């Protein structure tokens, strides 16, 4: 079953969020400190990923172009509007904004190489190990985030399952038409670009700045376009 890893990922996010909901009666001062700890940890993870690039010019161009596209499409506003719609339908939990929890958790769980690599392995080889590992990480992260951002974190399961499920669904076609060397290069540069976005999420969680990370998401697509262009150029002109 090629969606098994995706479904397990979604299930553990739900379980982690529900457990976090039960543990959210922590003192306000402790909650603030925990949020700083989460933000700093996310920043370090982002830095580790960001340094993996083999051609940082690709990452810079991708992020800049992605930011322009994202601002034109107002992706951050649209994601927030979806979160606010959920908040109106369900009501505020009283422990953080449902919109805030939904948006931040969605970005953390979707951005990164494990989601793409895991979904590809599930779809092509029926190997769910990467997504199983991601599931435990996401479940624990959902637990921690819910204690500070509220139950809105649980709704991130919807875009996570759709995102990973679609990649797994089309994985066979991707493997058939995309050379392995090209895919490997894309994963490297996408990981670096995604790492910078995750670092920005960490900055947001600490309250240091407010970066519209969702508006950077088109940078992942731009990375694929640029890497493909470089790959084709190397084949035909070098």
Highlighted features:
single chain; 238 residues; mainly alpha; 80% helix; globular
Number of strands: 0
Largest sheet: none
Helix content: over 70%
Report the uncertain regions: none
Mean pLDDT: 87
Task: Give the terminus-to-terminus CA distance.
Answer: 42 Å
Give the ordered list of helices and strands: HHHHHHHHHHH
Computed structural class = mainly alpha
Describe this structure in words.
With 238 residues, the protein is mostly helical. It contains 11 helices and no strands. The model has no long low-confidence stretch (mean pLDDT 87). It is globular and about 60 Å long. It has helices at residues 4-22, 28-50, 56-73, 75-90, 98-110, 113-125, 129-149, 157-169, 171-177, 180-206, 218-237. Helix 1 runs parallel beside helix 7 and helix 5 packs antiparallel against helix 7.
